[in-house]
């Protein structure tokens, strides 16, 4: 699952992939925003991303797509 997090007043977004389901990520985002707590997610490499809910601009949850690499003979 690909996650993109936009932070208020910061031009660059945080982008990473996680093994968490879309429902799990959505629930964590909702809980963090409702409780004004930190949003804490884990990426595929075992790292932890922590963002205070008060500075969240947006959270985009998308499907992980396989990137095609190579050349097409034609």
UniProtKB/TrEMBL annotation:
GO MF: ATP binding
Keyword Nucleotide-binding among UniProt keywords: yes
InterPro entries: DUF3107
Keywords from the UniProt entry: ATP-binding, Nucleotide-binding
Keyword Nucleotide-binding: yes
Protein name per the record: ATP-binding protein
Source organism: Enteractinococcus helveticum
């Amino acid at each position: 699952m690909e996650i993109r997090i936009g932070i208020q007043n910061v031009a660059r977004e945080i982008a990473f992939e996680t093994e968490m389901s879309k429902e799990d990520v959505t629930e964590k985002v909702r809980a963090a925003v409702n409780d004004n707590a930190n949003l804490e997610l884990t990426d595929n490499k075992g790292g932890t991303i922590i963002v205070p809910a008060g500075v969240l601009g947006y959270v985009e949850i998308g499907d992980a797509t396989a990137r095609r690499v190579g050349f097409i003979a034609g």
